[in-house]
Target: GNAT family N-acetyltransferase
Amino acid sequence: MMPRSSCCRIRPAVDDDADALFDICLKTADAGADASALFGDPRLPGYIWSVPYLKLAPEFAYVLADGLRTIGYVLAVADTARFEDELEKTWWPQVRRAVADLPPRRPNDAQALERIAAPRRSPQWLLTDYPAHLHINILPIRQSSGWGRKMVNKTLDALSSAHVPGVHVGLHPLNERARSFYSHLGFENVSRDGHILYARRLPGHEGKAG
Model:
C-alpha cells in the first residue's frame, strides 16, 4: 500500500539535502525513470541538473520530504544568464576537477562530460521573455500524486514575488508525461532549434511577451 500523501511536506532545501539531490537526480534522469545504469559516476546528473541550484540559488530551492526522507525537489533561478555566468566562475571548475579522471564507460557518460567541459548557453530569444528556469524531479513513490503541481506552484509564487516576468523549462524529448504536466500548469510549447521548451509568463506580465 502506498503511504498517505498527507505525510509529505514541502520545505526549503538546505545544504544537507545535497546527497539526496544527487540521488533523486540520478533516479529520475532517464526521462523520469532510473538512470543508474546510464552513468559511470552516480553524481554526474546531479552535477548538472540539481546540486548547483542548491549551492548558487538556495532561495528558490525546495524539497519534498516524506517524514525524514527527501523524495523530490524543485529548483529554480530567477536570472538564467547570470546563473550560467556564476556556474562558469565557481561551479564548473570544481566539477571538472572532480571528473577529470573519469573515463566514459556508460551510455550517457560522454554526453554529460561534454556538457560539463563545454556548457551550452541558453539562447537570448528565450531569456528575453522567460529569464527564469526550473527543474523538478520526484521519486516514483510520489509521482502522479499531486505534489508536483504543488511544488511548481510554490516556485512560481516565489519567482513572481521576486518580480520575474517569465519562466521556462527544458524537457527530455521522450518525456511525454512532462509535456502534459506543464501544459496543464499553463506553460506553452516554445520549442525551437531542436530543443523541447515550455514557458509561462508570471502574474503581472501576461501578454507582455516580446
Q: What stands out?
A: The domain at 5-201 is CATH 3.40.630.30 (Aminopeptidase). The first strand starts at residue 8 and ends at 12.
